[in-house]
Amino acid sequence: MTVQHQELWLRWRNCRDKAARDALTQHYLWLVRYVAGRLMVGLPSHVDQADVEGHGCFGLLEAIARYDPERGVRFETFAIPWIRGACLEGLRAMQWAPALRRRVRQLEKVRDELMEALGREPTVAELAERMGITLEEAERRLQEAGTLAVLSLDEAVAFDDGETTSLADRVADAEAVDPEEESQLAERREVLARAVASLSEQEQLVIALIYEEGLIAKEVSEVLGVSQARVSQVHSKAILRLRGKLSRLKRDLVS
Predict the structure, then answer these.
(1) CA-CA distances (angstroms) from residue 241 to 76, 90, 105, 177?
(2) Which residues are bridge partners to 157 per DSSP?
(3) b or e along 215-248 (b: 16 or more beta carbons within 10 Å of the residue's beta carbon)?
(4) Overall pTM > 0.85
(5) Contact 40, 91 (CB under 8 A)
(6) CA 153, CA 216: separation in Å to the nearest integer?
(7) What letter does residue 133 receive in the DSSP assignment?
(8) What is the pLDDT of residue 249?
(9) Is the distance from CB of 112 to CB of 145 less than 8 angstroms?
(10) Would you state the pLDDT for residue 160?
(11) Partners of 156 in the β-ladder
């Protein structure tokens, strides 16, 4: 380990410096590509390695969060099982994702209809009644909506300027972008910030802990003093609300 990377680990471990974490993540991305490449051997041709790598990145982040350099174990040795586990979990999820997406789309459609009719966020019971399902099934579908919230930098996204590209292609060094690109990026950040601001205080906190601080559900539950099931419920409802809010804000910007 070089002196530079030792300093990055110290900054991350001692100060939770996000810039240090991001630098470490970028440096060890080759591990994700290595693990995903080995898993791709023998898999069907329709499986996209970029999708597998996207899931593996979450394993890398988890490994960085848990790694302790003072234990004397090489990070590569420590991280590979975490990355492999995340890739395998992603591969399992791919087998049922199409049906899951259909259920989530139906849930979003019903939610939008109820919001328009009621003028407020519908309750889980109201969603269940409109869809003709049990309350337990409605709760499960809300959790599924949260499952689909995971975004990969390699995922293709249709932006409001009509271009479909990956998030990674939209992210660049601030010194390297021209003023027009910087303006578009700032506008998208503002739209996202407005959408997050519309959430309840608890929902905003859960979103921040998961997506900004990189905590897992168990750690979030410990921070907030609630059950993991409650964290999952709040996260799923927040994601569903964000998806609807972003869609409406996007339509407003276009019109």
Answers:
(1) 38, 24, 13, 32
(2) 165
(3) bbbebbbeeeeeeeebbbbbbbbbbbbbbbbbee
(4) no
(5) no
(6) 19
(7) -
(8) 60
(9) no
(10) 46
(11) 166
